[in-house]
Amino acid sequence: MIEDSKKMIGFEVWMEGFPPSSRLSPPLDLFAIKEFTNMYGDDNPLYTDPDYAKNTRYGCLIAPPTITNGVKYPVTRGVLDWGPYPFAGFPAQVSWEWYDVFRVYDRTLTSMKADEVFEKKGRTGGLVFTNLDTSMWNQSEKLIATGEGMFISVAREGYVEGEGMTGSGGMLYERPTTHYSEDEVEKIVNAYDNEKRRGATPLYWEDVKIGEKLQTVVKGPSTFMDFLGGETGRSIGRLRVTYPSFEGGLAGEGEQPRKNPVTGWPYESRWMEHYDFNLCKGRGLPGPFDLGVVRCTETMHLISNWMGDDGFLKRLTSSIRKPHYYGDTNWFSGEVIKVYKDNVEGVEYGAVDVIISVINEVGENDLPGKATVYLPSRELGEVALPVPTPSPENWKLTTKRDAKDFLNEIESGETIFPWLPSVMNDYYGWLNSQSR
User: Fold this and answer.
1) What is the dihedral of CA 230, 232, 234, 237, to 10 degrees?
2) What is the H or E stretch that residue 121 is in?
3) Rounded to 10 degrees, what is the CA torsion of 259, 263, 269, 273?
4) Is there a contact between 216 and 25 (Cβ–Cβ < 8 Å)?
5) The CATH number of 2-435 is which of 3.10.129.10, 3.40.50.1580, 1.10.260.40, 3.40.50.1820?
6) What is the pLDDT of residues 35-58, one digit of tens each?
7) pLDDT tens, 287-302?
8) pTM to 2 decimals?
9) Domain extents for the chain?
């Protein structure tokens, strides 16, 4: 598995049956942006109300910056989707840096390449880390965002050829589903009712002090609808191709199936490990659990409430430390740790660093992170956009090459590809639609 993973380094990575986006994505229209914000529970009118947004500095609706997680899932299982490897996989860290906003009807070009594969020994056995670099441009070929993702593959016993993961490898983590008292329910409801959004009132850089606390934002208790909403949100802007492995929970051709330990049905989709109380144990977890990248996206709600319409999220790093289960509640909070001027290619920005904590109902920090926010300044003026980008040599628009060139790379062995008929049919069908 490690040897096969290292073959991906330097090449475009195929994500769970979706080919690299060597063509522009569908437009980020009002429906797509609202679908994404609904997924993580943010009704900020800057992202959802065109009439409100047209009176902001942008003059139109914009998307939350973390929509990058929906346009391009920044971590991938890599070869785990291609062969019978005895591993369970989990996203570990997601980092993004932005240079401009996504405006309504923007389209994207994306590139994701494997950068590094290495092994460590963990508490439960062997761990394989895959690091990936992602870059994203708009339809004018302007670099909008760059990102890094880390994926961990955990060695698991109990893999049976032809049957998939049986779940006999032991549990990676044990915790019962939380039952809330009446007082705990009231506390959560009050937090929702008292949530404040800065909105159009500017937060000036000069007024921010080290040690300042951001108002806490609550998410939860998580339901199955929340988990399934994550499936919707992570598909925004992608190629609209058929993904048979998720249809009805039935494993698609080429996908390594899961055997249901209760019914004995051997062809369950691995995605159902997220949602099924029986199948989740095959991933070594005691209950249904969220998509970690969706949790990273939810952090945006905390940041946007605090920084207001005129703030700009420059950088965000989130580390996925613990699972988030069905019924869990997360409390997102932040504290200012640094206030400074950031000089980017001769342009000065009023910058603030915020340390982020995401504490669940049992007291675990399951998503520690850090954000850098640029704020309007009485001295420096409004945040100048776009922010100067890295040199073109570091972030070339590699995805502009023709899709047929990519097929030639596959056929010549220059890039790694799972030779699965279902995926090939999707890709050739997509090519035909582009030619039409």
Assistant:
1) -160
2) strand 108-122
3) -90
4) no
5) 3.10.129.10
6) 889 888 899 999 999 999 999 999
7) 888 888 889 999 999 9
8) 0.83
9) 2-435
